[in-house]
């Protein structure tokens, strides 16, 4: 396989990495069966073992959002989703962490280029954290003092940087947002060493993602380490848009659904149920739902890519095309849960034991559907947008305040 050499943190050390989308995808597919073999261990550890993190790093998944002018492969959102899908076919928790950690290069577009180069001297660094404002950022000279506690820090146990949303304060008084009414917020990035990880991640599913709560106490964050999705520093391009970090998320759902379908088909053949009517109908019904859902996700991504690659913006999509992006994402998660649930029922008592991957996938898909991108808030957001009303989660549509 080919590789590129990138400057290390000291300007002299070189770090090899995969050069393009095809190689990253190939490495992800090669790693998938290894992740499947480690899935029980990952779940029991409630976080990714360090060697699994390094295996993910070696695929290039964490660098795939970095731009070519930084020496990165700059995978588009379709290619990124394919990589996350391949890894999630092996293990959804590992795929989830890969999806979160791969945002590092995407966040770099919202930072000054020189700052991003200093923060991320090596392109395989991992970023984790919760973007919704939960903390308090008190404005001080040169930046903010950040304090707070956040939930759902997927991958925080192995992250290099932690990004957290917080409400802005000045002299203990809340600062208003761009509309002058809503509270102002900002995203702040701090080194993992300044973060206290709280061992709270005891969950139904996605246990191996290590999505623990975390706390930050009175840490100074320079202004240059803060950003909002309304301000893109890296110009234009298919990745320089505010909702870019959400686009590859359905890869997790599609990967686990495909894994469950393949497992159920192979198991049915192995136990001699190929001629069973119920088995035939259930598998075919699930395959049809999966195929339609996958085409919906990639169709929406392809149309978005066509518009953005031609120099357009999200505003150049038709309202239906723009609403279709978050809707297809939500539908992928809901379909994955439905597919796994039906295959679980089809397998009857053989599925109920913990060694069964269907048991784990049932719990994983149940948990991932609790994420906001799979909730009814997305339906309200898309519906309101189509009706000219106010979406409750406009960022899902790539709509942000005009200024910080």
Automatic annotation (TrEMBL):
Gene3D superfamilies: Acyl-CoA dehydrogenase/oxidase, N-terminal domain (1.10.540.10), Butyryl-CoA Dehydrogenase, subunit A, domain 2 (2.40.110.10), Butyryl-CoA Dehydrogenase, subunit A, domain 3 (1.20.140.10). Keywords: Oxidoreductase. InterPro entries: Acyl-CoA_DH_C, Acyl-CoA_Oxase/DH_mid-dom_sf, AcylCo_DH-like_C, AcylCoA_DH/ox_N, AcylCoA_DH/ox_N_sf, AcylCoA_DH/oxidase_NM_dom_sf. One of its GO terms (molecular function) is oxidoreductase activity, acting on the CH-CH group of donors. The keyword Oxidoreductase applies. Residues 252-375 form the Acyl-CoA dehydrogenase C-terminal domain. It holds the Pfam family Acyl-CoA_dh_N. Residues 29-106 form the Acyl-CoA dehydrogenase/oxidase N-terminal domain. The keyword Zinc does not apply. It comes from the Bacteria. This is Alkylation response protein AidB-like acyl-CoA dehydrogenase. It comes from Longispora fulva. The lineage of its organism: Bacteria, Bacillati, Actinomycetota, Actinomycetes, Micromonosporales.
């Amino acid at each position: 396989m080919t590789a590129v050499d990138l400057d290390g943190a000291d300007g002299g050390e070189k770090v090899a990495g995969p050069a393009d989308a095809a190689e990253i995808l190939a490495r992800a597919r090669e790693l998938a069966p290894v992740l499947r073999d480690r899935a029980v261990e990952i779940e029991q550890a409630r976080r990714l073992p360090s060697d699994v993190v390094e295996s993910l790093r070696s695929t290039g998944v964490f660098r795939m959002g970095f731009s070519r002018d930084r020496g990165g492969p700059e995978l588009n959102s379709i290619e990124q989703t394919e990589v996350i899908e391949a890894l999630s076919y092996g293990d959804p928790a590992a795929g989830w962490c890969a999806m979160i950690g791969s945002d590092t290069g995407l966040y770099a577009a919202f930072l000054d280029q020189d700052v991003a180069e200093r923060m991320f001297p090596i392109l395989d660094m991992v970023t984790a954290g919760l973007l919704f404002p939960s903390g308090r950022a008190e404005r001080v000279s040169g930046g903010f003092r950040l304090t707070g506690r956040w939930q759902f820090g997927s991958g925080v146990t192995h992250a290099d940087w932690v990004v957290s949303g917080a409400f802005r304060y000045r002299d203990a008084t809340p600062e208003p947002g761009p509309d002058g009414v809503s509270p102002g917020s900002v995203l702040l990035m701090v080194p993992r060493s300044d973060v206290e990880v709280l061992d709270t991640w005891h969950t139904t599913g996605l246990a191996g993602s290590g999505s623990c709560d975390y706390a930050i106490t009175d840490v100074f964050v320079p202004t240059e380490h803060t950003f909002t999705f309304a301000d893109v520093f890296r110009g234009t391009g298919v990745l320089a848009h505010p909702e870019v970090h959400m686009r590859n998320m359905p890869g997790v759902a599609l990967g686990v659904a495909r894994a469950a379908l393949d497992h159920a088909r192979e198991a049915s053949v192995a136990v001699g149920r190929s001629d069973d009517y119920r088995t035939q109908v259930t598998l075919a019904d699930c395959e049809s739902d999966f195929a339609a859902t996958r085409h919906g996700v990639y169709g929406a991504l392809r149309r978005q890519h066509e518009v953005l690659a031609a120099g357009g913006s999200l505003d150049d999509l038709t309202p239906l095309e723009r609403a279709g992006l978050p809707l297809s994402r939500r539908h992928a998660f809901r379909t994955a849960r439905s597919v796994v649930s039906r295959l679980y029922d089809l397998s009857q008592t053989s599925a109920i034991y913990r060694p069964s991957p269907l048991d784990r996938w049932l719990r994983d898909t149940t948990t991932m559907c609790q994420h906001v991108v799979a909730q009814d808030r997305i339906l309200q957001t898309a519906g309101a947008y189509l009706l000219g009303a106010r979406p409750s989660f406009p960022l899902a549509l790539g709509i942000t305040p005009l200024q910080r």
